[in-house]
Amino acid sequence: MRQIMLEEIERDPVFDVVVIGGGITGAGIFRRSALLGFRTLLVEQKDFAWGTSSRSGKLVHGGLRYIKQGQLNITYHSVREREKLLKIYPLLVKSLRFTIPVRKNKLANKVLYKIGLTVYDLFAFKRTYSFQKEPCSPLIRNDVEGCYTFQDAITDDARLTLHVIKEGIFHGGIAVNYTEAMFLDRSSSPKTLILKERTKGKELEVKTRAIIIASGAWSDYWDPTLPLRKLRGSHLVISSQKLPLETAVALIHPEDRRPLYAMPWMGHTLVGTTDLDHLESLKREPKITEEEVNYLLDAIKFWFPEVKLTKEDIISTFSGIRAVMYTGKKDPSKETRDYIIKRLDEGIILVTGGKLTTFDYIARKILKELKPLLTSPQEKKIVAIDFNPPETDSIENILYSTKEEMCVHLEDVMIRRTRLGLIRKDRGLPLLEECKPKLKKIMNWSESEWQQEMRNYVKTLQNYSLPQ
Prior knowledge:
By secondary structure, this protein is an alpha+beta fold. Helix content is about 35%, strand content about 25%.
């Protein structure tokens, strides 16, 4: 499929819209543009969802904490979009019951939770919250007298991103991963963009009327004047045998009072998230630090003291980089999570910030911004399409993803398509050996190429593991 896309670019390199960036924001814009009938191309320099869109907290949520910060506009639009996504993608975006434990003699907290949840439900146009006098988990600390419960949603962010891209392809768009936008001639009309396909090093020249840059934390490459603040959010994947949860649990860290959560995810328990300035180069893949591991474990130990969690119970970790606008706030968590749209030139728009939940809202805004420049030939009807892999065993999923989902490397299959590299203690290495003959045939790899792919995958896993 990927080769067909590249050949189509060479056959007809003229587009209405080119989207740079294959995360959820770029995917959403690509899908919307294709639905409007524009000939649309999406390019991603690494794999689809390689960046933040495979390393988010997996929540499709309104952002309850933003109410406390006065960011009501973000919460309102996020809640409304959450409700839409639950209807559009019922197999990918699923309702998630959240609980907030309330400790004895914490009346002020109880009142604040009630006010916040009332506003949250008003935005959703439905009542979901309630208070129950039983602890939210038998493992919770014994001074918890009850809990609030409310409704949010959960997704597999990488799978959702890929699905949205597939929808754009279904409606006539072209999308290629491992293809970098190298040079942009802003003076030409239409705009000229030089692309480089990274597996073979071949350069492609395309023409387009409009370019939308949705490269997230890498946005300042295109506009160095952007006041971007890059924040790292790290997570732990913990054995559900050690910390079994029936609902997601919203927690407050005992040290700095930051909101955290623990929730069921893919048969395990996901704990997140930190919120720290990421000062390292984005040329290196982000990974969790020892301090972050201890920070998250301390929260779990405080709220679930009987669990006696240790580092040996951690199956994997992952860290993503959020791009937010720097406003001078000392606390990273208080920076706005709103998006910014900036016109760099006639027909060139950059978008950054925003949330996973609001990807389609942002896409609609972007396409509206381009309306004076582009005349849509014929808007297409949105239809529900099932692009999900068959619900079979792990080996069948590996083979399906490798063959059908534009994978270039083993890490694409194991970390973003199937998640086996995150949810198995053995990281799926025995499965790969079992699949080896078929995978080599599908990818047309020699034995030496296979060995190199395995070495690269094992090396990549270090970024999804505890610090050495």
